[in-house]
Amino acid sequence: MRITRLPAAALLTLGLAAAAVAPAAADSSPSPGASEDAAGPTRAGTSFRTATEFEQGQTATARASVGDYLYWSFPADAGQRPTVRATVKLPETHAAETWRVDVYDGLRRRQACQYGAQTRTAPADAASVELACVLRTVRAWSEPWANDPLPGTYYIRLTAVNLSASDLGQSVDVEVRADSKDMGGAAAVDGSLAEPLVPGIALRTEADGEGDEEKSSSAVLAALEPEDGWTSGWWSDRWVWTAVGGALAALAGVAGYRLTRGSGRPSRVPPGV
Known about the structure:
With about 270 residues, this protein is of the alpha+beta class. About 15% of the residues lie in helices and about 30% in strands.
Protein backbone atom coordinates (compact mmCIF):
# COMPACT_ATOMS: atom_id res chain seq x y z
CA MET A 1 0.00 0.00 0.00
CA ARG A 2 2.87 2.35 0.75
CA ILE A 3 4.36 1.75 -2.66
CA THR A 4 1.13 2.61 -4.46
CA ARG A 5 1.08 5.98 -2.76
CA LEU A 6 4.35 7.04 -4.36
CA PRO A 7 2.96 7.71 -7.87
CA ALA A 8 0.22 9.81 -6.30
CA ALA A 9 2.82 11.85 -4.46
CA ALA A 10 4.80 12.29 -7.67
CA LEU A 11 1.69 13.48 -9.52
CA LEU A 12 0.95 15.94 -6.74
CA THR A 13 4.49 17.30 -6.95
CA LEU A 14 4.23 17.73 -10.72
CA GLY A 15 0.88 19.48 -10.33
CA LEU A 16 2.32 21.98 -7.89
CA ALA A 17 5.29 22.57 -10.18
CA ALA A 18 3.01 23.15 -13.16
CA ALA A 19 1.07 25.74 -11.19
CA ALA A 20 4.30 27.48 -10.22
CA VAL A 21 5.60 27.54 -13.78
CA ALA A 22 2.30 28.69 -15.30
CA PRO A 23 3.14 32.43 -15.01
CA ALA A 24 6.52 31.83 -16.62
CA ALA A 25 4.95 29.85 -19.45
CA ALA A 26 2.53 32.70 -20.07
CA ASP A 27 5.49 35.00 -20.58
CA SER A 28 6.70 32.93 -23.54
CA SER A 29 4.32 34.83 -25.81
CA PRO A 30 5.40 38.11 -27.41
CA SER A 31 5.70 40.75 -24.71
CA PRO A 32 5.95 44.26 -26.15
CA GLY A 33 7.05 47.01 -23.80
CA ALA A 34 4.23 49.32 -24.88
CA SER A 35 0.55 49.03 -25.64
CA GLU A 36 -0.34 47.61 -29.04
CA ASP A 37 -2.45 50.72 -29.67
CA ALA A 38 0.24 53.19 -28.64
CA ALA A 39 1.24 55.59 -31.40
CA GLY A 40 4.89 55.47 -32.39
CA PRO A 41 7.15 58.28 -33.60
CA THR A 42 6.64 59.73 -37.06
CA ARG A 43 10.23 60.50 -37.96
CA ALA A 44 13.59 58.75 -38.25
CA GLY A 45 17.12 59.76 -37.36
CA THR A 46 19.94 60.06 -39.85
CA SER A 47 22.75 58.64 -37.68
CA PHE A 48 23.35 56.62 -34.53
CA ARG A 49 23.47 59.78 -32.44
CA THR A 50 20.15 61.06 -33.76
CA ALA A 51 18.31 57.71 -33.80
CA THR A 52 14.61 58.04 -32.97
CA GLU A 53 13.57 56.07 -29.90
CA PHE A 54 10.42 53.94 -29.78
CA GLU A 55 9.05 51.24 -27.50
CA GLN A 56 8.65 47.59 -28.40
CA GLY A 57 5.17 47.00 -29.70
CA GLN A 58 4.95 50.45 -31.30
CA THR A 59 5.07 51.08 -35.05
CA ALA A 60 7.43 53.89 -36.02
CA THR A 61 6.70 55.63 -39.31
CA ALA A 62 8.65 58.09 -41.42
CA ARG A 63 8.68 59.70 -44.86
CA ALA A 64 12.13 59.76 -46.37
CA SER A 65 14.02 59.91 -49.64
CA VAL A 66 15.52 56.91 -51.39
CA GLY A 67 19.21 56.82 -50.57
CA ASP A 68 18.89 58.14 -47.01
CA TYR A 69 20.11 56.19 -44.00
CA LEU A 70 17.29 55.88 -41.46
CA TYR A 71 17.91 55.09 -37.78
CA TRP A 72 15.69 54.08 -34.84
CA SER A 73 16.44 52.65 -31.41
CA PHE A 74 14.53 50.50 -28.91
CA PRO A 75 15.30 48.79 -25.55
CA ALA A 76 15.69 45.01 -25.18
CA ASP A 77 16.26 43.13 -21.92
CA ALA A 78 17.87 39.80 -21.01
CA GLY A 79 15.88 36.73 -21.98
CA GLN A 80 14.14 38.44 -24.89
CA ARG A 81 14.51 37.48 -28.54
CA PRO A 82 13.79 40.67 -30.53
CA THR A 83 12.25 40.63 -33.99
CA VAL A 84 12.57 43.73 -36.18
CA ARG A 85 10.23 44.22 -39.13
CA ALA A 86 10.34 47.00 -41.71
CA THR A 87 7.95 47.83 -44.55
CA VAL A 88 8.87 50.29 -47.30
CA LYS A 89 6.10 51.64 -49.54
CA LEU A 90 7.78 52.38 -52.84
CA PRO A 91 6.86 55.13 -55.34
CA GLU A 92 4.63 54.30 -58.30
CA THR A 93 7.48 54.46 -60.78
CA HIS A 94 10.87 53.06 -59.85
CA ALA A 95 13.54 50.69 -61.02
CA ALA A 96 14.54 47.51 -59.19
CA GLU A 97 15.67 48.45 -55.65
CA THR A 98 17.44 46.45 -52.95
CA TRP A 99 16.61 47.39 -49.34
CA ARG A 100 18.47 46.24 -46.25
CA VAL A 101 17.80 46.40 -42.49
CA ASP A 102 20.62 46.06 -39.95
CA VAL A 103 20.48 45.89 -36.16
CA TYR A 104 23.27 47.08 -33.83
CA ASP A 105 23.62 46.80 -30.07
CA GLY A 106 24.45 49.58 -27.61
CA LEU A 107 28.16 49.28 -28.46
CA ARG A 108 27.28 49.70 -32.15
CA ARG A 109 28.27 46.14 -32.94
CA ARG A 110 26.28 44.70 -35.80
CA GLN A 111 24.16 41.77 -34.62
CA ALA A 112 23.60 38.81 -36.89
CA CYS A 113 20.07 37.70 -37.70
CA GLN A 114 19.08 34.14 -36.84
CA TYR A 115 16.63 34.14 -39.72
CA GLY A 116 14.44 36.50 -41.68
CA ALA A 117 14.61 38.42 -44.95
CA GLN A 118 17.21 40.99 -43.96
CA THR A 119 17.84 42.05 -47.58
CA ARG A 120 15.29 42.03 -50.38
CA THR A 121 15.18 43.26 -53.94
CA ALA A 122 11.91 44.84 -55.08
CA PRO A 123 11.20 44.54 -58.82
CA ALA A 124 10.22 47.57 -60.85
CA ASP A 125 6.48 46.90 -60.50
CA ALA A 126 6.50 46.23 -56.73
CA ALA A 127 4.42 48.53 -54.52
CA SER A 128 6.28 47.71 -51.30
CA VAL A 129 9.02 45.58 -49.81
CA GLU A 130 9.00 43.86 -46.40
CA LEU A 131 12.10 43.03 -44.36
CA ALA A 132 12.56 41.08 -41.12
CA CYS A 133 15.42 40.25 -38.75
CA VAL A 134 15.11 37.85 -35.80
CA LEU A 135 18.01 38.41 -33.43
CA ARG A 136 19.60 35.96 -31.06
CA THR A 137 18.31 35.84 -27.48
CA VAL A 138 19.64 38.72 -25.37
CA ARG A 139 22.00 37.39 -22.68
CA ALA A 140 22.31 38.74 -19.15
CA TRP A 141 26.11 38.85 -19.49
CA SER A 142 28.85 37.76 -21.86
CA GLU A 143 32.61 37.45 -22.19
CA PRO A 144 34.41 40.64 -23.28
CA TRP A 145 35.61 39.01 -26.49
CA ALA A 146 32.18 37.69 -27.51
CA ASN A 147 29.65 39.41 -29.74
CA ASP A 148 26.59 38.19 -27.85
CA PRO A 149 23.58 40.54 -27.66
CA LEU A 150 23.38 42.16 -24.21
CA PRO A 151 20.56 44.09 -22.50
CA GLY A 152 20.36 47.73 -23.50
CA THR A 153 19.61 49.95 -26.47
CA TYR A 154 19.44 48.46 -29.96
CA TYR A 155 19.70 50.47 -33.17
CA ILE A 156 17.89 49.81 -36.44
CA ARG A 157 19.38 51.06 -39.70
CA LEU A 158 17.32 50.93 -42.89
CA THR A 159 18.61 51.96 -46.29
CA ALA A 160 18.50 51.11 -49.99
CA VAL A 161 21.55 49.72 -51.77
CA ASN A 162 22.46 49.22 -55.44
CA LEU A 163 20.29 52.11 -56.57
CA SER A 164 19.97 53.58 -60.01
CA ALA A 165 20.50 57.29 -60.44
CA SER A 166 16.86 57.81 -61.43
CA ASP A 167 15.59 56.52 -58.07
CA LEU A 168 17.74 58.71 -55.83
CA GLY A 169 15.70 61.27 -53.93
CA GLN A 170 12.29 59.74 -54.57
CA SER A 171 9.89 59.83 -51.63
CA VAL A 172 9.03 56.63 -49.74
CA ASP A 173 6.96 55.82 -46.65
CA VAL A 174 8.54 53.53 -44.06
CA GLU A 175 7.12 51.54 -41.15
CA VAL A 176 9.34 49.87 -38.54
CA ARG A 177 8.29 47.66 -35.64
CA ALA A 178 10.13 45.70 -32.93
CA ASP A 179 8.68 42.89 -30.80
CA SER A 180 10.24 40.36 -28.46
CA LYS A 181 9.51 36.83 -27.33
CA ASP A 182 10.41 35.93 -23.74
CA MET A 183 12.55 32.79 -23.88
CA GLY A 184 12.22 32.01 -20.15
CA GLY A 185 14.64 29.85 -18.17
CA ALA A 186 16.02 28.19 -21.30
CA ALA A 187 18.02 31.37 -21.91
CA ALA A 188 18.97 32.05 -18.27
CA VAL A 189 22.65 32.32 -17.36
CA ASP A 190 24.46 32.66 -14.05
CA GLY A 191 25.40 36.33 -14.01
CA SER A 192 24.20 39.78 -14.97
CA LEU A 193 25.49 43.16 -16.06
CA ALA A 194 25.78 45.95 -13.50
CA GLU A 195 24.24 48.37 -16.01
CA PRO A 196 22.57 47.90 -19.42
CA LEU A 197 24.32 49.04 -22.59
CA VAL A 198 22.86 52.54 -22.96
CA PRO A 199 25.62 54.88 -24.20
CA GLY A 200 25.02 58.43 -25.38
CA ILE A 201 22.85 58.33 -28.48
CA ALA A 202 22.13 61.98 -29.20
CA LEU A 203 23.30 65.53 -28.56
CA ARG A 204 21.20 67.91 -26.50
CA THR A 205 21.86 71.61 -27.07
CA GLU A 206 21.55 73.89 -24.05
CA ALA A 207 21.91 77.63 -23.81
CA ASP A 208 24.60 79.09 -21.54
CA GLY A 209 23.41 81.99 -19.46
CA GLU A 210 20.48 84.20 -20.36
CA GLY A 211 21.14 84.56 -24.07
CA ASP A 212 20.93 81.94 -26.75
CA GLU A 213 24.11 82.98 -28.51
CA GLU A 214 26.36 80.63 -26.55
CA LYS A 215 25.23 77.03 -26.56
CA SER A 216 26.76 73.76 -25.39
CA SER A 217 25.98 70.20 -26.42
CA SER A 218 25.88 67.21 -24.09
CA ALA A 219 25.28 63.51 -24.74
CA VAL A 220 21.86 62.15 -23.82
CA LEU A 221 21.43 58.59 -22.55
CA ALA A 222 18.62 56.40 -23.78
CA ALA A 223 15.43 57.53 -22.10
CA LEU A 224 13.43 54.37 -22.81
CA GLU A 225 13.58 51.07 -20.92
CA PRO A 226 11.45 47.89 -20.76
CA GLU A 227 8.03 48.22 -19.15
CA ASP A 228 9.10 46.37 -15.99
CA GLY A 229 12.56 47.94 -15.87
CA TRP A 230 15.92 46.33 -16.53
CA THR A 231 15.83 42.90 -14.90
CA SER A 232 18.91 40.79 -15.70
CA GLY A 233 18.33 39.18 -12.30
CA TRP A 234 19.17 35.78 -10.91
CA TRP A 235 15.60 34.44 -10.83
CA SER A 236 14.17 32.34 -13.66
CA ASP A 237 11.81 29.39 -14.03
CA ARG A 238 14.92 27.20 -14.21
CA TRP A 239 14.93 27.26 -10.40
CA VAL A 240 11.42 25.76 -10.37
CA TRP A 241 12.39 22.89 -12.65
CA THR A 242 15.52 22.26 -10.57
CA ALA A 243 13.37 21.94 -7.45
CA VAL A 244 10.96 19.60 -9.28
CA GLY A 245 13.85 17.43 -10.43
CA GLY A 246 15.21 17.20 -6.88
CA ALA A 247 11.80 16.21 -5.51
CA LEU A 248 11.34 13.51 -8.15
CA ALA A 249 14.85 12.18 -7.50
CA ALA A 250 14.06 11.92 -3.79
CA LEU A 251 10.80 10.07 -4.49
CA ALA A 252 12.61 7.70 -6.85
CA GLY A 253 15.22 6.97 -4.16
CA VAL A 254 12.56 6.17 -1.57
CA ALA A 255 10.70 3.93 -4.02
CA GLY A 256 13.87 2.07 -4.94
CA TYR A 257 14.76 1.52 -1.31
CA ARG A 258 11.33 0.09 -0.49
CA LEU A 259 11.42 -2.23 -3.50
CA THR A 260 14.89 -3.64 -2.78
CA ARG A 261 14.92 -4.01 0.99
CA GLY A 262 12.48 -6.97 0.94
CA SER A 263 9.90 -7.96 3.55
CA GLY A 264 12.39 -8.38 6.39
CA ARG A 265 13.66 -11.56 8.15
CA PRO A 266 12.02 -14.78 6.91
CA SER A 267 9.88 -16.59 9.54
CA ARG A 268 11.84 -19.84 9.16
CA VAL A 269 15.10 -18.21 10.29
CA PRO A 270 15.47 -18.44 14.10
CA PRO A 271 16.36 -15.26 16.01
CA GLY A 272 20.04 -14.59 16.54
CA VAL A 273 21.19 -16.23 13.29
